[in-house]
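Onboarding guide, step 5: your first structure request.
Type a short instruction followed by the sequence, for example:

Predict the 3D structure of this protein.
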Amino acid sequence: MRTDHRRTCGLRGEGLAYGFLTARGLTVRARNWRTARGELDLVCLAGDTLVFVEVKTRRTLACGTAAEAVDRRKRHRLAQLAEAYMARHPHAGPCRFDVVSVAWTGGMPLIEHLVGVDP
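The system replies with structure tokens like these:
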């Protein structure tokens, strides 16, 4: 049951991140793009820049921000997934990694967009 609640919370956070990014002019090219090695939450275009977005959702800020959960190991896996994505969907322009953090504070979502996180 706990896993279902976490999944629901995560999907809700991804939906909010999707709306947040599109409202700021990014175009979503893929959502929940999967391979055997994992999943990219969102793949977007910001102008000619391909943006790989990791969405992290927390129910509270008591254990730190969601972005803090994107550790070195997770960033390495995201870089591998991005390479797999580009092998199937070539992109000649620049690329970057972003993190969107969604935290529920007082029943309202607090959304933070970290641009250009090192993979």
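Each response can be followed by summary notes, for example: The beta strands are 27-35, 38-46, 49-58, 95-105, 108-114.
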